[in-house]
Design goal:
Radius of gyration: 52 Å
Number of strands: 5
Shape: extended
CATH class of one domain: Alpha Beta
């Protein structure tokens, strides 16, 4: 059963609503001021919904200023010079040879290997022609002939070259001997290589006049050097770890330079001494400038009686 309100009452409510609207009593919902607290908006009641305000569109950012146009010379594309036809043909031939070799390796059929060998024969033929032309040019141009630079290859010319070189080295070594340069020969009495090397040093001393001071590391003797000295610490100073060992010593400058270890020939000794004489500071032992090293060297150079120092 539905209860119906009297028509007069409904009309009275409508009149009151019109009056309230006319006086501004009923206000429409307004968006909340972000600076006002929420309890000041009690007129909204407990159930309301407001559409969020759409923020105004931001002004478009100013476009970055374009860089000043570069000079026409810099911006203009560089023209690539065309390759000479010989370079193009060489690159094509090189690529074809490599491809055929790869194919022949990966699939070594008779046809593939033959194709590679035929192209390789063409390349070798061209290289041979180039070598012949270069050789003829070298014959006519001595400054371009590699056989005339440095050590000759002809047997007769090589013999003359060796004779001249030996004479020059002998002169430089004799000059060193006049400057009281000497050899330190470190040996052990039980070393067979030291015994085999001793006659070479003895002959070298007689030929070039460089004094050889034999130093026994273990205190034992060696034939050919009756005045051998016992090591007094200079082997440790020079860090001699292997015998036979030969050092070139200059008593008045304090420089001691290693010449070699093991058994050497007279030609090898002369070659190495001449190289050291040409650049004496390149391989000089630096720590012998100390007083201890020089004192040990001076004690070894002092004349003593024959035999080993006990």
């Amino acid at each position: 059963m539905t209860l119906r309100r009297p028509a007069s009452r409904q009309a009275g409510l409508a009149v009151c609503l019109v009056v309230m609207l006319g006086n501004g009593t009923v206000a429409l919902a307004q968006p909340q001021d972000p600076g006002r607290p929420y309890w000041s908006d009690n007129w909204r009641g407990w159930h309301f919904y407001e559409e969020p305000e759409i923020p105004p569109p931001e002004p478009p950012a100013s476009a970055p200023r374009q860089a000043a146009p570069a000079s026409s010379a810099a911006t203009a594309p560089r023209r690539s010079h065309p390759k000479p036809p010989e370079i193009v043909e060489f690159e094509r031939l090189q690529k074809a040879l490599e491809e055929r070799r790869h194919i022949a390796i990966m699939r070594p059929t008779e046809a593939n290997v033959r194709r590679y060998m035929e192209l390789e024969a063409r390349v070798v033929s061209r290289a041979s022609t180039f070598a012949d032309v270069a050789q003829r040019i070298a014959w006519a141009s001595p400054e371009l002939d590699p056989t005339l630079q440095g050590r000759p290859v002809n047997a007769k010319a090589l013999e003359v070259f060796d004779q001249l070189q030996t004479a020059q080295r002998s002169q430089s070594i004799s000059a060193l001997g006049r400057d009281h340069v000497l050899f330190f020969f470190f040996f052990r009495s039980d070393c067979p290589y030291c015994h085999a090397f001793a006659p070479t040093l003895e002959a070298f001393q007689a030929r070039h006049g460089i004094k050889v001071v034999a130093i026994s590391v273990d205190g034992g003797p060696i034939p050919g050097f009756a005045d051998a000295r016992r090591d007094n610490g200079i082997a440790t100073t020079l860090r001699v770890s292997q015998v036979p060992a030969v050092y070139l010593a200059q008593p008045f400058t304090g420089k001691i330079t290693p010449i070699g270890f093991g058994v050497l020939s007279e030609a090898q000794l002369a070659e190495r001494i001449s190289m050291v004489a040409a650049s004496p500071e390149s391989a000089a032992t630096p720590f012998l400038g100390a007083a201890g090293g020089l004192q040990a060297q001076a004690r070894l150079i002092q004349p003593r009686g024959p035999g080993l120092v006990r």
